[in-house]
Amino acid sequence: MWRVLFYVTPTSLTVALVFFFLLSWVLAVAIKKRGASFSRSARAALALAAFSYVFLLSILPLGGEQPGSGRLIHWNPLHFIHDHNSEGAIEESFGQQLSDGNTVYYSPDELPAEERSEIQKMSPYDFFAHGNIESGVIVSNPEGDVVPQSQGQHILTEISEAIEVSSEPVQSQGMILEEKSLNFLLFVPLGVLAYFSFSSHAARMATGPAVSLSIEVVQWSVAWGRTADTADLLANSLGSFLGVAMGMLASALAVLTRRSEINGGRRAASAGHGAGRRPRGRHGS
């Protein structure tokens, strides 16, 4: 599932947000036509989405986690900003996606079979590479067999730049911003559904944080080795707030559009009625 982060870019985020707003517009038009019956359908969809989020993001094990493997909590919701901007962090090993969609894990030294197996359980890679640019980089498959020279050279060409800077201080760790952006984006549709499910503004605003808090509590309780993170709670909540705002804006636009159509229809009817009337003639004596 972590590979999704490779596709979190400004372009993909923009496209997704535009899609969610169009979805809000469709829902706003539908609720104006169907009224209370549509609100009930929206609440059912919201309940299903909330259950799915809790199950997929906290209960369902991903990548070989084991029950009871740890209960960690990050209390500072802004800790990821410090992690992202911290200097002096050394990232000698890293994972990278290649242009053909395959992934490679690089480390300066050859990894023992046990460590390679543990990495595969958490995040499966298609290739492993070790060594350095000066003395040569060896590329092998997950079983430890060296790949053909032409294939290895192709992989080395793509990761050589990353290898050169892997032992230098870096400005970011992992894909923190991509992860938080995805957390933000996932809860936008939940906020949209919340807006059309409830008439109370407080209920609309509380839905996203409540679902996110449930996810973090379950993550901590089940202890799959994941971290209950207040930064995720913050990102999820902000995403749901944006979804509520989208629903509000779409509803306002739907009302204005409907009024414009009604007024246009009235003017057309009035004009037609006036044209159909015959002018009264004068009666001579």
TrEMBL record:
Residues 275-285 have a biased composition (Basic residues). The keyword Transmembrane helix applies. It holds the Pfam family VanZ. The chain crosses the membrane at residues 44-63, 181-198, 238-257. Keywords: Membrane, Transmembrane, Transmembrane helix. Residues 265-285 are annotated as: Disordered. This is VanZ family protein.
